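Regression test case RT-17, inverse folding.

Input:
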């Protein structure tokens, strides 16, 4: 079996998740080999404030980065505050964000989100997960990303790369991003929470690639549940 052709969302093998000492060792190695949070880390899609961060994250759902970026630029050329956004007709918002897909639904969510910010939060984006998830169109992943990037909180947001890395290696063993986020919150050492998202996402982009992971040179290979299962497979 060729370790380089693994599917992106393959869960860890039957050995289950790493033990607490193994998980701590994995994060120690990630800290050693991968870059952490930089001093100039910005909100989602490099937005300069929490409002634009949360709206950008909403737009990124089921959208490629290049398409999201085009939609973000077009939308924020029209409005950059909840009040200004709410004054735009939904049809105009939909036209601006069309590159990111699901534009009619997202336009409605943006209007509802702005209305909720004005009516319930005094035009201030909530800093808590509960508050963020109370906003229309904002789920766990988006809330955690905004908390981490816009508010510099110690939370590991689970995007595509983090989900793949954690459940392939055995850092977690979950079937959904939300359950992965919950598992990380329960099990990751406190010292790894601030930069953990950054280590994992860079590891996913440079080593634990989606289709052709670099298992043979990976510094987590001896801990990785998936790699152990590959080596033990009859056709390996």
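Golden output:
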């Amino acid at each position: 079996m060729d370790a380089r052709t693994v599917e992106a969302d393959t869960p860890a093998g039957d050995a289950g998740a790493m033990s607490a000492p193994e998980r701590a060792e994995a994060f120690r190695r990630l800290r050693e080999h991968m870059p952490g949070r930089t001093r100039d880390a910005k909100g989602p899609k490099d937005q300069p404030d929490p409002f634009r961060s949360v709206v950008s994250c909403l737009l990124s759902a089921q959208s490629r980065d290049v398409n999201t970026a085009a939609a973000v630029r077009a939308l924020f050329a029209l409005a950059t505050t909840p009040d200004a956004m709410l004054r735009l007709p939904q049809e105009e918002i939909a036209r601006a964000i069309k590159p990111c897909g699901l534009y009619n639904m997202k336009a409605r969510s943006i209007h509802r989100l702005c209305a909720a910010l004005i009516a319930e939060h005094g035009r201030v984006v909530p800093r808590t997960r509960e508050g963020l998830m109370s906003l229309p169109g904002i789920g766990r992943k988006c809330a955690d990303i905004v908390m981490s990037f816009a508010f510099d909180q110690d939370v590991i947001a689970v995007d595509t790369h983090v989900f793949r890395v954690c459940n392939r290696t055995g850092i977690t063993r979950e079937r959904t991003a939300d359950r992965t986020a919950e598992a990380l919150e329960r099990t990751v050492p406190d010292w790894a929470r601030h930069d953990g998202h950054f280590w994992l996402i860079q590891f996913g982009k440079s080593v634990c690639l989606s289709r052709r992971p670099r298992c043979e040179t990976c510094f987590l290979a001896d801990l990785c549940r998936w790699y152990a299962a590959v080596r033990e497979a009859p056709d390996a």
